[in-house]
Amino acid sequence: MRAKPLPVLLSAFLLLSCSSGMPKELSDYLSRCSLSEAESSVLSGRVTYQDEAVDADGKKVGAYDVLQEANFDFEGKKAFRFIAGTYSGTLKLYDESSQVYLTREDYSLSYDEGRQCYARTVKKEGYLAMDESGEKVSSEETTYLAELPAKSEAMSFFFTSDNAGTFVSGGVYYADFFKNHSRYYQYMSIQDGLFLYTLKNVAFGDFSASGKAGTGEKGAVDETIAMNEKGLLVRMDQALRNFTTGVSSTAHVEASYVYR
User: Fold this and answer.
1) pLDDT value of position 152
2) Residue 17 Cα to chain centre, angstroms
3) 3-state DSSP call for residue 250?
4) Which of 32, 40, 138, 243 is at a distance of 20 to 30 A from 122, taking alpha carbons?
5) What's the confidence (pLDDT) of residue 12?
């Protein structure tokens, strides 16, 4: 199960004029962040993802709503991970394994006392076509895991990819991402103890200065990401405006943690 991520649009826009001299205040903040510290200090976490897309007339054309919760008390056999997502319209989640546009996906991982192992259950519902034509498809699968693979799967709450060993991404741990993109420091700041990354009306698409072939679409984005001193995502707000299609989307992510 994947909690549908919001794209982090740091390197997709006109950011090529940035130099690498990150101010000491920012570099010191990032240097204090550690993935191992974040993983060991968090007892549980909760993240909500919401996004809504509207067309040029203001009509809703897509949405998704995802809740993710996790607990890491493996010693007490209380560890679990739970994700529930609903998707509609143009923001349906495409599942490559089943080639289905999902309208709902539920994932649960928890300890099974009777079997003395962890049970992972994945339920999916969706359609073979984006427009929901044809028969509705559904599936449910339960797999039993020993503690080590179950722990590895639960810890993907923090990250899902190590990007060929260079930095981790895909979960709630954001410090590596900002360390890897330190050359874009002018979009970063520290306010009220949080590390912030902010874009305001930044262009993307065919009039980007990247020199790469465009998609045929143009747009602009506002985006704010807030990260705490553990290197963990606190919130993300994103507004995308596609000038070519007339579609705009507004997204929000909110995360909270209980520490050991």
Assistant:
1) 95
2) 27
3) strand
4) 40
5) 46
